[in-house]
Amino acid sequence: MNERSSVSTRGSRRAPGPGALRAINYGIGFVRDPFAVLNNSTHRYGTIVRFGIGDRCVHLIHQPEHVQHVLLDNNRNYEKSSPFGLLKLLFGRGLLFNEGSSWFSQRRLLQPSFQPKQVAARADGITHVIGSTVDAWPRADADNINIEDDMTHLARRIIGELLFGMELPNELDVILESEDSKFAFLLGNVPLTPQNITYKAAMRRVDKTVYGIIAERRASDNESVDMLSMLMSAVDKDSGECMDDTQLRDEIVTLLFSGFDTTSRTLTWVFHALAQNPEVEAALHQELETVLQGRAPHVNDLPNLPYTQMLVKETMRMFPANAIIGRRAKADDVIDGHAIPAGSYLTISPYLAQHSAKIWDKPEHFDPLRFAPEREKTIGKFDYYPFGAGPRQCIGKGLAMMTIPLAVAMIAQRYRFTSLPGFVVEHDIKVTFQSRRGIRAKRHLRPAYDA
């Protein structure tokens, strides 16, 4: 691993951006409409935008070569950060926010649990949960439902199966909720604020529940194939040690939040996109009917469902769960001639890159065929990175790209959704990319399933 080193900023220049007062206005605007701020500021100031008040500053970047510099080429100079303080309070020293040699050791310890063989071994449990959840939906049309509610409930059951082989206890719901205002998240790490007090109390309940599950599992002689058991049996190849309870707690909470959020948000946007694009929906149904012929999908079917996978990838391009990624510079650096002082923050936006007309043809047009095999080969690594990139790319990428297509296939066999007339979807960032008021739609039972 390369050690970070300070780069001389002599001859570099400050990145363009608003003055202090306008920067404050942009901050207020981000709470109201984050995507307007992202789009308007880059349109006005360029590919690197500096928002500064005195010596404190944030740089917004999205240009592929700039992102590559931060996430890959000089990644040792940039540590994880988040504008949402509660996340660090929640995750502790889990893989998401851990740093340095401790992060490296933890990543190496977890990596075997996410190898393709281990991921595929969980497929039957996942398809059973998806099937039983969708089976419980009414076998009738529904005139006004929230797609987000359906997918949130499904994702909750999937993540419970993956982590513990059981339904999630209600005490863990606070980890899955991101309905609070951005101010609540921003104030979460400020001592003695109501938000800090409330969430610390909630975390005590979470800790009691998670530590209780770990203790029960340690005392049990039953063999399990869920993620908790795999983490408990993981051994560091250098030290020969296993994770202690604190490490297990932090990793379980991290996986619980990140796995749930990516799955629920992406599934929600998939079925919203299908409701908006009937020709895409028709192509999906044709593939499912041709390949599956009415039976439930299995992990071995995924290579024969390329359009389903292309649909998921295009959804992640248009609606990336992680619309912004945070980093903090440890030492002075220079990006494209612009000074990045030590201690300054960077906001990297996959959303901006994945909606850039300089990178994509007709970026606002939803087109799964962008990810047809030959076309996908031409997509740059930092043109499209819904799971992040570099050494800290999401460890659960393979698991997500198995689970989400299986869920899409099984749901689309049975139901379709159409947009609710008059309902306007408002894009927002509440930790992840979601709709401010949910996505209301009509749910229709497909004739083949009704037979």
Write structural notes for this entry.
The chain is of the alpha+beta class. The protein has one domain: Orthogonal Bundle (Cytochrome p450), CATH 1.10.630.10. It is 49% helix and 12% strand. The strands form four sheets. The protein has a five-stranded mixed sheet with strand order 1-2-8-5-3, with helices on both faces. Strands 4-12-9 form a three-stranded antiparallel sheet. The model has no long low-confidence stretch (mean pLDDT 90).
- The CATH class is Mainly Alpha
CATH superfamily: Cytochrome P450
Ends apart, CA distance between termini = 59 Å
For the report, how would you describe the main beta sheet? Answer: 5 strands, mixed
Q: Residue ranges: pLDDT <50 for 5 or more in a row?
A: none
Number of domains: 1
Strand order of the largest sheet: 1-2-8-5-3
Q: Name the structural class.
A: alpha+beta
Helix content: 40-55%
* CATH architecture name: Orthogonal Bundle
Total of helices: 19
Strand content: 5-15%
Number of strands: 12
**For the residues shown, what is the average pLDDT?**
90
Calculate Rg over CA atoms: 22 Å
CATH topology: Cytochrome p450
Oligomeric composition of the shown chains: single chain
SSE blueprint and pairings:
Blueprint: H1 20-32, H2 34-45, E1 48-53, E2 56-61, H3 64-73, E3 78-81, H4 86-91, H5 100-110, H6 116-120, H7 123-135, E4 142-146, H8 147-164, H9 173-176, H10 182-186, H11 194-219, H12 227-233, H13 245-276, H14 278-292, H15 306-318, E5 325-329, E6 333-335, E7 338-340, E8 345-348, H16 350-354, H17 373-376, H18 397-414, E9 415-419, E10 427-430, E11 432-435, E12 440-445, H19 447-450
Helix pairs in contact: 1-2, 7-8, 7-18, 8-13, 11-13, 13-15, 13-18
